[in-house]
Design brief:
15 strands; homodimer; four-stranded antiparallel beta sheet; Aspartate Aminotransferase, domain 2; alpha/beta
């Protein structure tokens, strides 16, 4: 119990002596006794990071661009190191100038990266200028949104407004729902499945194999038995396979993840058929349904012919991402569940003056304000218009791809266009496409204009000529992924 | 599979007919056939929220200020409802005016609430003006910080810089650590304990009873056996009790949560003694230690005589909050663990072009930039100064409380001053004190000045005269919480 910072310095000196030779510890090490006096003579270089930024704001590229996925490695591809300020930094202003330079380069790269972005379902079209006045407050919604906490710098009043809007959208009365604004879609799935497990402790988790990986992560975290169900070519859950698997496990209750838009193909599981399958397999009263509506949970209510996601059906929780269709500068999500389920999860926490049924204790209080602002500005009518525009543009893209002889598929209720995986990884990275096996996808969000799609198409067609024009290589067959009718490989075209 | 939004409208009309009478559905319901046409004649009022904001930007107070913690209730204390825009809102500008008015009132309340804040360990003193240029980008660090993702609008380069800084602080080499920037301290604990469980699947979770509630939440989520260990009056873990409990469960490995600053008393568990206890109880090679350094993980390296948190000792993971001592407008945290442990948690996720050992998939990309900015500006030297100031001010507060005859305690390594719980809840709320049983606490952060403490003290002393002055009521005895030597109740004072 003696030493503190002096110990720190000494230990580091010891460490330098015993470190392997190849470690390059930059900065002058000074282990003289004077370090024992605090505070003026503390030499921060003693614990300065071992590598520093070379030049002026140029990120250090420590490895070649290695895209292999390797377990057990820790790739420092690019990083902006933190450098201990010099004692005279305040005078020279060098520190501020250095940081301003890093930030300005970073901003330029963000503009470029935002411009070439098609693969992830993030609406990058928003203007939150009116909210910048709030950026410098430490807004934190601790614990349950419906129970006042003693911490006053929160935004519960916005959060509850947003939750009410969503509960209404999914038709659950105000006194029958509970929910909160999460950090992302994953947290929504973690929460929904946890509630399911608490309601049915010996329940088995069922999810189609095209579900988001967070669903299977939840199963592992929570030590649940987990059964993967097959899918149709569209990406929807295969209810025949679901039934078979239910019957094999009929003694235990079912906790079911239903995809309202799968990650890769944007396929919407048929909720009505899932419920019917459960009922006819003898699971009545013994199942819990979580709807993972990450993207389409908000689009579907505005799509003609879409099966309705509503709590009037036998579902138990719904989650949706806030940074996707709504558009929000940081990841967030909305989680709505039946209030009666929440008691099983709650515990009294005097520290927060709050029961806490959330997964995270501290929660970002800015996100609810962003959501509140957009929902208020656009309203249902505004979202409806945007959904229609996205669907129109997605159809445009799919039609043009097929016309150009490029394999493509678009599910009826979706704005996710699946296409053959471009041959060149550099092209994939440039357009930030998400890929799986032989397919890639473009998610048409409100910020994806016809003009942007045209540029993408032109570039893709021009590249394909290079890749496949001389006949040496052939475009991949993706019939198994998108169905033979949508495949344009040499075996399937026409 | 037919209907979509028309179905929505129709269902809502059906719903109105079958809803209980007491539900007040505002807005004109119009269920005529014309709703079947899209998009122009869709009437958004059909799905407008059932309650709306009265007046101009004044929040609706739906219940009286009920602070009871009641399970199974859903208290809509105050909320800013979201109202569907009128068709002519763009013309009249009323919508924008209404929202501007709500935001401006909210901002005023944030200023006031930020001014009177003492109970939570959040440093509210920061200036991130230089970063406002980045606010309108949708920055998302999906998956593992060390593996490039195809999504280009990220801030990994800042995140890795921050992680390197912390790994260095806690003395773990760059090629031996793994970590990420979390959403909050809770996520750090959830991650550390999950890794512990994956390393020792049948391990028992040990934590002192004064650990943060997220530790016990993790135990329940992960279906782990959990043993609560007693504490000393200071709040530190009682190693004698720990040893007894280890010996009762000697057949199973131990996963231990060590508090580097407990939530309520700011007590620092004696890490060296915990390790010694494990070794002498026969647990050598069969234990995992997670250090919950929510607040003090960053302060301790700068405190004289503090036991050192370092990976040179047998510890396995450390977490710290980013929005506490560092100060950050949204909750966040840093999690550092040994790289070798991470493989047990990882799974290959082609969708992200990334293995993902994080708990959350999508992560706020702004938080790393805030942290990077502050660490770069202040450096180790800056933090050292601030820590010293906080400790000085905390001593000042404790001394003045005791001198005034008010029970108070301050742990040696802490800036958390424990005091008798003020009698009046309104006073507690005004100063946003966190309370537990008969005690409350003030956490002296860099933004808590002597001047602010003086105002608090004056107000408290004046109130106490009213509460206890006429002898009808007596200040609570808190000897059991803070030790008789720190208690100033009528039984214990001198």
């Amino acid at each position: 119990m003696v030493g503190g910072i002096m110990n720190g310095a000494t230990d580091l000196c010891d460490k330098v002596e015993t470190l392997p030779k190849e470690l390059d510890l930059k900065g002058t090490m000074n282990c003289s006794d004077k370090l024992a006096q605090l505070p003026n003579e503390f030499d921060p270089m003693e614990i300065a990071p071992p590598f520093t930024l070379e030049g002026n704001g140029v990120a250090e590229d420590l490895t070649s661009r290695n895209r292999d996925i390797v377990l057990g490695r820790n790739v420092h591809t690019i990083s902006y190191a933190i450098k201990e300020p010099e004692a005279d930094d305040d005078v020279t202003g060098e520190r501020e100038a250095y940081m301003a330079s890093v930030l300005s380069r970073y901003r330029t790269s963000l503009i470029e990266r935002t411009k070439h972005h098609l693969g992830y379902p993030y609406n990058l079209d928003f203007d939150y200028g009116a909210l910048s006045q709030l950026q410098h407050f430490s807004i934190n919604n601790l614990g349950d949104p419906f129970i006042e906490s003693n911490y006053g710098v929160h935004s519960r009043q916005f959060e509850v407004g947003v939750l009410d809007w969503f509960a209404r959208l999914w038709e659950l009365e105000k006194n029958e729902y509970w929910g909160y604004i999460t950090n992302c879609g994953t947290e929504g799935n973690l929460h929904g499945i946890l509630v399911g497990r608490e309601v049915f402790p010996d329940g088995i988790l069922y999810a189609s194999k095209e579900s988001h990986y967070s669903v299977f992560k939840a199963g592992r975290m929570y030590r649940m038995e987990c059964v993967k169900v097959g899918t149709l070519v569209s990406g929807e859950i295969d209810c025949a396979d679901f039934e078979r698997k239910l019957l094999m496990n009929s003694e235990k209750p079912a906790i079911v993840n239903v995809n309202i838009g799968t990650t890769v193909k944007g396929a919407v599981d048929d909720l009505d058929m899932v419920i019917e399958t459960l009922n006819k397999s003898g699971f009545k009263g013994r199942f819990y349904i979580h709807c993972d509506g990450a993207l389409f949970g908000l689009m579907m209510p505005f799509v003609k012919r879409a099966p309705k996601v509503t709590f009037k059906k036998h579902i138990d929780s719904v989650s949706v991402s806030g940074h996707k269709f709504v558009g929000c500068p940081m990841p967030c999500g909305v989680q709505i569940t039946r209030l009666k389920h929440i008691n099983v999860l709650s515990s009294n926490i005097e520290y927060l003056a709050s029961r806490d049924a959330t997964i995270m204790g501290s929660r970002n209080g800015h996100a609810p304000i962003f959501l509140w602002y957009t929902l208020n500005r656009k309203g249902y009518r505004g979202f409806q218009k945007e959904v229609q525009k996205c669907l129109r543009n997605a159809h445009y893209l799919k039609d043009r791809l097929l016309t150009a002889g490029i394999s493509a598929m678009l599910n009826e209720l979706s704005s996710t266009v699946v296409l053959e995986r471009p041959k060149d990884e550099e092209f994939v990275r440039r357009w930030q496409l998400a890929c799986e096996g032989n397919i890639a996808h473009v998610v048409v969000m409100p910020n994806v204009t016809i003009d942007k799609l045209d540029r993408f198409l032109e570039e893709l067609m021009e590249r394909r000529l290079r890749w496949y024009g001389n006949g040496e290589a052939r475009a991949p067959c993706v019939a198994v992924d998108v169905g033979p009718e949508n495949c344009r490989c040499s075996d399937h075209k026409n």
